[in-house]
Amino acid sequence: MAKKESKNIAKAHAAVVKPAYALPEAVGLLKQVKYAKFDETVDLTMRLGVDTRHADQMVRGTVVLPHGLGKTKTVAVIATGDRQKEATDAGADFVGGEELVEKIQKENWTAFDALIATPDMMRVVGRLGKVLGPKGLMPNPKTGTVTMDVAAAVKEIKAGKVEYRADKTSLVHVPVGKLSFDAQKLIDNATTVIGAVVRSKPSAAKGRYIMSITLSSSMGPGVRLDSAVADAAGKH
What we know:
- The chain is α/β, with parallel strands linked by helices.
- It folds into two domains: about 15-70 and about 160-235, CATH 3.30.190.20; about 75-160, 3-Layer(aba) Sandwich (Rossmann fold), CATH 3.40.50.790.
- Helices cover about 35% and strands about 20% of the residues.
- The protein is built from nine helices and nine strands.
- It has helices at about 5-15, 25-30, 80-90, 100-105, 120-125, 130, 150-160, 185-200, 230-235, and strands at about 40-50, 60-65, 75-80, 95, 115, 160-165, 170-180, 210-215, 225.
- The strands form three sheets. The chain has a four-stranded antiparallel beta sheet, covered by helices on one side.
- A hairpin with a 5-residue loop joins strand 8 and strand 9.
- The radius of gyration is 20 Å and the shape is globular.
């Protein structure tokens, strides 16, 4: 039996009266129908016309949100020597070498939002796949988390760097801020993510690439965006 919607949820869903909205309208609508007592996260979901079973159609990358996410990410760094001091000076929350790898492996410890490793440490970090893989925390050169420039990587993540990746169903889910943000900040963050995904179109992808874009908040309705939003963001 289908679960009955609460009055608040039903009212919020009923407010979505158009098949698609311009981005500023969508942000305004989510703010208008807010009823939750906590500061909700605003998420962007993009359905892509790709088949991620094929490596040449994988869509993945990172982008720094101009206004951050409304919270500071906890960053861990696995490195040796001077790189450890550089990471600490840059604001990393946890810094270590093989002892940090051992802690993660033995204790299933993942009290961080991002993990950065230097290339020389990947020989030992590689054995953490079972712990970090399912949580999407494994360092990867494609996302800039395997690098010798650990200071720059830490600063980018602290500044609001997010990863986007098409899942098995060709959906990309990315947080773009908090509902308490000024509307323009949410618009800027969402435009930045959409533009990055548009520019990441694989050459092997044929036909229509952006199938749909939806903006939603933690407790609010999904608001579909007009197709013109992607075209504009791609030129941004």
